[in-house]
Amino acid sequence: MAHKLSPLASPLLHKVVDGPEGWSGIEADDEWAAEIRRLAAERNAVILAHNYQIPEIQDIADYTGDSLGLSRIAAETDAEVIVFCGVHFMAESAKILSPEKTVLIPDERAGCSLADSITAEQLTEWKAEHPGALVVSYVNTTADVKALTDVCCTSSNAVDVVNSLPADKEILFNPDQFLGAHVKRETGRDNIHIWAGECHVHAGISGPELARRAEENPEADLYIHPECGCANSAIYLAGEGIVDPERVHMLSTGQMLDAAGRQGSGTVLVATEIGMLHQLRKAAPEIDFRAVNDRASCSYMKMITPAALLRALALGTDEVDVPADTADAARASLERMIAIGQPGLGE
Ligand code: SF4
C-alpha cells in the first residue's frame, strides 16, 4: 500500500520559493541534476516526464512520453515512488493504473483547462438529461469524470471507440468539442452530443494560422501529436481539408521520432504544444522543425520547474491520491478502451 513519505534533507531546499507561477529559486545546473538523482535513488523513485515539459525536466527524467505511455511505464516499474512531471489528471491516471504505488506530482496546482471544463457534477446532470446514453470521455479528464464514464478514448482511437458502441445508443462525448466534431464527422452518427470544452492552448493552432503556415512552407510535412488536447483542433482542421491530407501525419511520440529518423532532412511543421520540439530536435537534428505556433505553450505543464521537482523529491509532496472506489470505476473505463484497441497508437 502507498504510505506517506518522510522528508529527506537536501542542501538546496532552502532556496526553493513559491510564487504565482509555481515553485522557483533553483537553476537547472549540474549541482541540481546530481541532487535530483541522489534524492530519486534514496526514494527508489522513477521520474516520468510528459513531452510538454520544459527541456531540463525532460532531460533529467528516466522516461519521457505521452500520458498513457507513461502511465503504462508507471504500472510496470519496480520503483516504489513515481514522480509524474505532467499535469494533475495524468498523475491521477498513473495512480489509477498503479494504486499500490506512491505517486507524486511536483506541483499539484498544475491542472488542465480541458480536464477542468467538465466536472463530475456536470456530467451527472448531463447523463440525467439523456437516460440510457453511453458516456465516452477523452483521457484528459479527472478521475471523478472517468469514474462516471463508460469508455475512455484518446485522439488516436476516439473514432474506433465510438464505432464499437451500438448504433442506436445516444453518445455523450466529452470534454473536447474539436475531437467530438471530428468523431461525429468520421462516424457519420447523428446521435452524438458533444460537450463544449476545449484546451486553452489550442487557440494557438487556429484554422487560418495552420493554413497560412502550410502555405508558407509548401514542402513541409505536418506532424500532429494527438495525445493532448491542444492538437485536437489541428486534427479537426486537417479533416476539414484546410491542409492537404497527404502532408498531414498523425503520429504518437514513438512514431514521430521514427518518422523523423526515416525522413532525415527537410522541414516539418509541428502542430502541438511546443515542448514536443525538444525531443524531435534531439532525435533528428538535420530536420528543420518549426512550431505551427511558437506561443502554443501550456502554462500548466511549465509549472513543473526544477525547484518543484527538487521540493517533491525532498519533501515527498505533492502526493496524488484517488479513492479506491473512484479508481476502480475509472480503471474500468480505461480498460474498456484498451480492450477496443489502439489506445495511443503505440509508444
Ligand atoms: S496542453 Fe491543453 S490539454 Fe494539454 S495539459 Fe495543457 S491545458 Fe491540458
Description of the structure:
By secondary structure, the protein is α/β, with parallel strands linked by helices. It folds into three domains: 13-112 and 300-316, NadA-like (Rossmann fold, 3-Layer(aba) Sandwich), CATH 3.40.50.10800; 115-198 and 327-340, Rossmann fold (3-Layer(aba) Sandwich); 201-291, NadA-like (Rossmann fold, 3-Layer(aba) Sandwich). It contains 14 helices and twelve strands. It has a four-stranded parallel sheet with strand order 2-1-3-4, sandwiched between helices. A four-stranded parallel sheet has the order 6-5-7-8. A four-stranded parallel sheet has the order 10-9-11-12, sandwiched between helices. α4 (88-97) links the parallel β3 (81-85) and β4. α4 packs across α14 (324-340) and α8 (177-187) packs parallel to α10 (232-239). The two termini are 28 Å apart. Bound molecules: iron/sulfur cluster. Residues 87, 112-114, 140, 199-201, 228-230, 273, 298, 300-301 line the site of iron/sulfur cluster.
Layout: helices, strands, pairs:
Layout (H helix, E strand, L loop, with lengths): L29 H14 L1 E6 L4 H6 L2 E3 L1 H10 L4 E5 L2 H10 L4 E3 L15 H10 L4 E5 L4 H5 L3 E3 L4 H6 L7 E4 L2 H11 L4 E3 L12 H10 L4 E4 L7 H8 L8 E3 L2 H11 L3 E4 L5 H8 L4 E4 L14 H10 L8 H17 L7
Parallel strand pairs: 1-2, 1-3, 3-4, 5-6, 5-7, 7-8, 9-10, 9-11, 11-12
The site of iron/sulfur cluster has 15 residues, from loops.
Function: Catalyzes the condensation of iminoaspartate with dihydroxyacetone phosphate to form quinolinate.
Catalytic activity: iminosuccinate + dihydroxyacetone phosphate = quinolinate + phosphate + 2 H2O + H(+)
GO molecular function: 4 iron, 4 sulfur cluster binding; metal ion binding; quinolinate synthetase A activity
